[in-house]
Design goal:
The structure holds 2 protein chains of 2 kinds.
Chain A lengths: L1 H25 L2 H21 L5 H20 L2 E3 L7 E3 L10 H15 L2 H11 L5 H8 L3 H23 L6
Antiparallel strand pairs in A: 1-2
Chain B lengths: L6 H8 L5 H13 L1 H18 L31 H23 L29 H11 L5 H10 L2
Helix pairs in contact in B: 2-3, 4-6, 5-6
Classes of the chains: A mainly alpha, B mainly alpha.
Chain lengths: 172, 162
């Protein structure tokens, strides 16, 4: 029963954060809700085996994974708002007027998917959670200078990916 | 100092942790070093792009304290080892369902900080006319139909189906 209370406590403490992380990449309430639910199901399964020492870091990592996978699976599709869920195949290169936010989300998701686990954790922790380098270093078990180095590498990798897609809009 | 020695300083500046003196030194270096200046500006644009994807301010009640009764219900054929997990899953799934319905029914209270997206409007379910939700029954039925699929996912689908 203590384990169950622990799961519920973690859920109450972090569910909104998980939803927020997912929403940043997915941009849709229902998609973010789906990913958040999936993350907590995995959390329960993980706790049944071995509870993670850093719940928040674990949840963030899995949320990013699931969100990136979700984006990947939908990157070539667009679901119209019809009741039947009509699916339209869209060329990956095509960006329609008004879809800039969606395109940015997709490309950033792809860029984050290319990073190493540590780079992604550091970058997301810094940009979206506004953690300090010291906090990130402590959470990830690395030095502050290593955290800074990974931060810069992650930014450069994301920039290079966005440049490859859109030219020099976000880079030299 | 060489450009490589300004790397960590750039991280502090980009991360908003540089002191005024450090920032001044870095800016002075960038004023005389084109590659570093270009590197910094491209990194800043990339971070701005990431920050432009904001999460909405959504008032969704993820508090599960009101659904403790659902935790006592378990499917008949549930594996005893994962019986407690299924109960917790039911509790969490109900809270997500409540969050979904809350968001749909009280959409006016949702404040979205980012630009309006082409996301289709959520299907609104009027609380007063919605059929009573019976998650326990949905969970049991989902399990009996196709035990190989996720009971939680099927029960969620049954609950959220209009």
């Amino acid at each position: 029963m203590d384990a169950n209370h622990s799961v519920l406590r973690t859920f109450n403490e972090h569910s909104r954060e998980v939803y927020s992380w997912a929403y940043r990449l997915l941009g849709r309430h229902h998609d973010a809700l789906d990913v958040a639910q999936d993350v907590f199901v995995r959390w329960m399964q993980q706790c049944a085996l071995q509870p993670p020492r850093q719940p928040r870091a674990w949840l963030r990592q899995v949320t990013m994974h699931r969100s990136i996978d979700f984006c990947r699976s939908k990157s070539a599709q667009r679901i119209r708002g019809s009741p039947l869920g009509e699916v339209e195949q869209v060329d990956k290169q095509e960006v329609r007027p008004g879809d800039e936010q969606t395109a940015l989300r997709n490309e950033l998701s792809a860029a984050l998917g290319r990073l190493s686990e540590l780079q992604r954790n550091v970058l997301v922790s810094k940009v979206y959670d506004e953690m300090t380098f010291a906090q990130i270093a402590q959470e990830q078990g690395i030095s502050v200078s290593t955290a800074k180095t990974h931060y810069l590498r992650a930014i450069r990798a994301a920039r290079d990916h966005l440049n490859a897609r859109w030219g020099n809009e976000v880079g030299p | 100092m060489s450009c490589s020695e300004y790397e960590l300083l750039m991280a502090d500046v980009l991360g908003g942790e540089a002191s005024a003196d450090d920032r001044g030194r870095f800016e002075a270096h960038c004023a005389t070093c084109e590659p570093c200046r270009v590197e910094y500006e491209s990194a800043r644009r990339t971070l701005d792009a990431m920050r432009s994807l904001r999460a909405p301010e959504v008032v969704v009640p993820f508090d599960v304290s009101g659904f403790s009764q659902a935790a006592r219900i378990a499917p008949r054929r549930a594996n005893r080892k994962f019986g407690p997990l299924l109960r917790i899953a039911a509790v969490i799934a109900i809270s997500f369902a409540a969050g979904y319905l809350y968001h749909a029914a009280w959409a006016g209270r949702v404040v979205v900080l980012d630009q309006p997206s082409p996301e289709p409007a959520p299907r609104h379910i009027a609380p007063s006319s919605a059929p009573p939700l019976n998650f326990e029954t949905a969970l049991a039925r989902a399990h009996s139909r196709n035990p190989s699929r996720s009971e939680l996912g099927k029960a969620m689908s049954a609950v959220l189906r209009p």
